[in-house]
Write a structure and sequence with these properties.
Arc Repressor Mutant, subunit A; elongated; seven-stranded mixed beta sheet; alpha+beta; 2 domains
Length: 298
């Protein structure tokens, strides 16, 4: 029975191996008795009947209340809709329960990410958390994957600054895109796709994926404000250099080049820098707050 893709897909949705086999068989061979199903899928009769009962209780198949108890699947569209509704209900219940738990203290360690799905999901979460600045340095495939998230972030927060270092021409609404110098040569040299991002100089992600973006060569994430601020400084310098090179190639006016080189950074206003001050020099933070209060009162 050449239904392995369907069986694998159903397992990903939470069905057991035998439940997936039963549903897949009955989808094209309904109605059938439990005994007939067991013979077809090569599983013990008792185990097959248990799987049929579990699927019936979940509403994924129906059983004739007759002598032979013939089984029939519900249409797969109905089955998928039912599973989706149950998942959303469970998701909302889990969200309420988890929100009631006190979060752990800040953890500034560096953690490995093992799957591409984890890399992209963490990056999306970072983009959603951004308040001031997003910098993304990414090859074409991961950048295209994250384009909707970046454009949504720009739309929801017009004050959010988004800077992209890209290696092929691309336009992302609400973002300032800078072409990497020698972008084509860099793409040819590297045996994979990289996706690097820093948010508010507060957290960062560095990842190197396979060429098709489905596997991870190496990826790390950290909530360390010190490491994140260092990476912010480095990638911001790279973006400035790429922009200056582009202006020089275009024979831009010297004044315009100096303006690009002298453009102020948001460094000390970023959340990551403020976390550094709060942690390592709290007296300075307190003094700064008092000065700001006095200015407002004046």
């Amino acid at each position: 029975m050449d239904h392995q893709n369907s069986i694998s897909a159903l397992r990903d949705l939470g069905l057991t191996e035998i439940e997936s086999m039963v549903y897949t068989f009955l989808l094209s061979k309904s109605p059938a008795t439990g005994y007939r199903v067991a013979q077809a899928i090569g599983k013990p009769v008792a185990n097959t009947y248990k799987a049929i009962e579990a699927l019936e209780l979940r509403g994924l198949l129906i059983v004739e209340e007759g002598e032979k108890r013939l089984c029939r699947t519900v249409p797969y569209e109905e089955m998928l809709a039912l599973l989706e509704r149950r998942f959303m209900t469970s998701k909302q219940r889990a969200a309420r329960a988890l929100a009631a738990i006190q979060p752990a203290d800040d953890d500034e360690r560096v953690y490995n990410l093992r799957s591409s799905e984890q890399v992209f999901e963490r990056c999306r979460a970072m983009i959603e958390r951004a308040e001031q600045l997003i910098i993304v340095d990414a090859f074409p495939l991961p950048l295209e994957e994250l384009r909707p998230d970046l454009e949504k972030a720009a739309e929801l927060n017009p004050r959010l600054e988004i800077r992209i270092k890209a290696y092929r021409p691309v336009a992302i609404t609400g973002a300032r895109v800078v072409a990497a110098a020698r972008g084509a040569a860099v793409l040819e040299k590297w045996p994979g796709q990289w996706l690097n991002a820093v948010i508010d100089a507060n957290e960062h992600l560095l990842s190197f994926l396979t060429r098709d973006g489905t596997q991870v060569h190496q990826a790390v994430w950290s909530n360390s404000p010190y490491l994140s601020y260092l990476y912010y400084s480095g990638v911001q310098s790279e973006i400035t250099c790429d922009r200056v090179k582009a202006l020089l190639s275009a024979d831009a006016d010297v004044k315009e080049i100096h303006q690009e080189m002298d453009a102020p950074w948001a460094g000390e206003q970023l959340l990551g820098y403020q976390r550094l001050i709060d942690r390592f020099e709290p007296r300075r933070k307190q003094s700064t707050d008092i000065t700001a209060d006095r200015r407002r009162s004046d």
